[in-house]
Amino acid sequence: MAQTAADRPPKETLSLWTREQARLKARVVDRDTEAWQRDPAFSGLQRVGGVDVSFVKGDSASACASLVVLSYPELKVVYEESRMVSLTAPYVSGFLAFREVPFLVDAVRRLQAKEPGLMPQVILVDGNGVLHHRGFGVACHLGVLTGLPCIGVAKKLLHVDGLKNNALHKEKIQLLQAGGDSFPLTGSSGTVLGMALRSHDHSTKPLYISVGHKTGLQTAVRLTHRCCRFRIPEPVRQADIRSREHVRKTLELPGPPALGRESVVTRRQKTQGPKTGPEGGSEEPTSAAGPPAHCSQGPGTDLEAPKPASQAAGQGWLPSGAGHRECAKATGHPTPASGP
Predict the structure, then answer these.
(1) End-to-end CA distance of the chain
(2) What is the 3-state secondary structure (H, E, C) of the chain?
(3) Does pTM top 0.90 for this prediction?
(4) Nearest partner of 295 among 137, 77, 66, judged by Cα
(5) pLDDT by residue for the chain (340 residues), tens digit each?
(6) What is the C-alpha to C-alpha distance for residues 287 and 197, in angstroms, rounded to an integer?
(7) How far is 245 from 291, CA to CA, in rounded Å?
């Protein structure tokens, strides 16, 4: 069911969110900034992060935010944190970051405080970066607020700037013969917004890679491919598995149910929305060693809205700065901590 007008935040909040996106977008760095990025073998890269937000099925206000850090190139988990959170902002297409990023920023802060030596040198984000309605998706948002290089890894194509999953696009996908093959996503404006990547030899569905922050597009594509044991890059895949398992344990649910039993956890549980395109999302990894059987992933695209939250306080959440405080004042809700 599409989100109704009554479930949306007021126009004033959407206007503030738009201005905050524009303010933060000016801080995006869309080129390689780290020494390890300039080495074809990524020499010097030791830690790669992944983030995920999973939701309790039937509960639009409860979710689990996870941050994992993997060693590189071994791709072994060296740090993980999963924490239940209460969502305070509704889902609105194009503004996913205002719903999810504050909890991910908090997770990065806690890691910095507890184990600074395990801080990731780059984070792979389940969502888009500059491939976005206003050129500032969730991967950009997280990157700017944390100061870390971030890469957007989406599983469905965002229909923006003339990009469409039409017959021509599908023909190009068919030409991706092996893992690592890619083609540019060029909008009607002539701007290359991202790359479609065949991430694994045995995967037929591409990933859509875009710059988040402090990384060039070619580097983002190469690193994503090198992190893929299966279709989904391992940092994102591990964060997803662990977030959903944490929900199961927190709710004291039984182990994996019999085949066909309804799942209790969903990735970005959303219902169909207007076809202006997703900001990213998740679907089941193509892995024999995938998530627990009791979990299922929804279509997981920003094109699809979650079940409407009860009129949640904090609809005006903004991550930092004067706009943050202005929005809180406008909606009458308390001001949360600002981003780093």
Answers:
(1) 36
(2) CCCCHHHCCCHHHHHHHHHHHHHHHCCCCCCCCCHHHHCCCCCCCCEEEEEEEEEECCCCCEEEEEEEEEECCCCCEEEEEEEEEECCCCCCCCCCHHHHHHHHHHHHHHHHHHCHHHCCCEEEEEECCCCCCCCCCHHHHHHHHHCCCEEEEECCCCCCCCCCCCHHHHHHHHCCCCCCCEEEEECCCCCEEEEEECCCCCCCCCEEEEEEECCCHHHHHHHHHHCCCCCCCHHHHHHHHHHHHHHHHHCCCCCCCCCCCCCCEEECCCEECCCCCCCCCCCCCCCCCCCCCCECCCCCCCCEECCCCCCCCCCCCCCCHHHHHHHHHHHCCCCCCCCC
(3) no
(4) 66
(5) 344 444 678 899 999 999 999 999 999 999 999 999 999 999 999 999 999 999 888 888 899 999 999 999 999 999 999 999 999 898 899 999 999 999 999 999 999 999 999 999 999 999 999 999 999 999 999 999 999 999 999 999 999 999 999 999 999 999 999 999 999 999 999 999 999 999 999 999 999 999 999 999 999 999 999 999 999 999 999 999 999 999 999 988 766 544 333 456 665 543 333 334 444 443 333 333 333 333 333 333 332 233 333 333 333 334 444 333 333 333 333 333 333 3
(6) 18
(7) 8
User: Measured between alpha carbons, how far is 246 from 240 in angstroms, rounded to an integer?
Assistant: 10
